[in-house]
Amino acid sequence: xxxxxxxxxxxxxxxxxxxxxxxxxxxxxxxxxxxxxxxxxxxxxxxxxxxxxxxxxxxxxxxxxxxxxxxxxxxxxxxxxxxxxxxxxxxxxxxxxxxxxxxxxxxxxxxxxxxxxxxxxxxxxxxxxxxxxxxxxxxxxxxxxxxxxxxxxxxxxxxxxxxxxxxxxxxxxxxxxxxxxxxxxxxxxxxxxxxxxxxxxxxxxxxxxxxxxxxxxxxxxxxxxxxxxxxxxxxxxxxxxxxxxxxxxxxxxxxxxxxxxxxxxxxxxxxxxxxxxxxxxx
Length: 282
What we know:
By secondary structure, the protein is mostly helical. The chain has helices at residues 2-37, 42-47, 62-71, 73-104, 108-120, 125-138, 146-167, 173-180, 185-196, 198-214, 217-222, 230-234, 246-267, 269-277.
């Protein structure tokens, strides 16, 4: 009987592994297609998109050079990097402080803040984007520096929720000991609490980095052509009458994907740990 149960478990694991492998291939297939077609001429991408770039199809690095020159890729890359790094840093710092405060200070207004943060997670961006655009224009936030504050507003809901859940699992004794030793709230947070929040901070950073780096709609609404990010710059590969330089577009997409994939792979082990830690019930 025990041997039969072991066989069933083994079979189930093998089927599950096979299913996950198939799903992984389905998710990786579009990226593989983009990579293959980034080395083809535009004509061959349209005529034969599924074949390997051999013979006259192969263009070498020509598409990459063309794409970089046509959209001024490195200029767009610089703005994407600046906005992403600054926005993520601000979101992590202020969300961690807010999550710690509303968890430790038991007041009516802290509960209101907490539930407002939770409610903001379920409000679609499309419901507020026109109002937000108008206020951003009035307050002069429609620039690469002001958009950082906008990202803080949209990213703080989920981030604060995760930090708050993690703080509930931290024994308050270590904070009380620090205060007895003369630490104020700010020093207690940065010297004691924030280092303990590292797993959740990394998870929050990863999730927000992937969102902000790939975001198209918000930069389109707030930024002008001088400060365009990579997702916006890609659309400039469209020519007149709907013509698109497909080869250059595929090459630029690969160049845009590489940084975020490298970042994700280097930090992925922290995601599950941080999510689980932030899901503690209080």
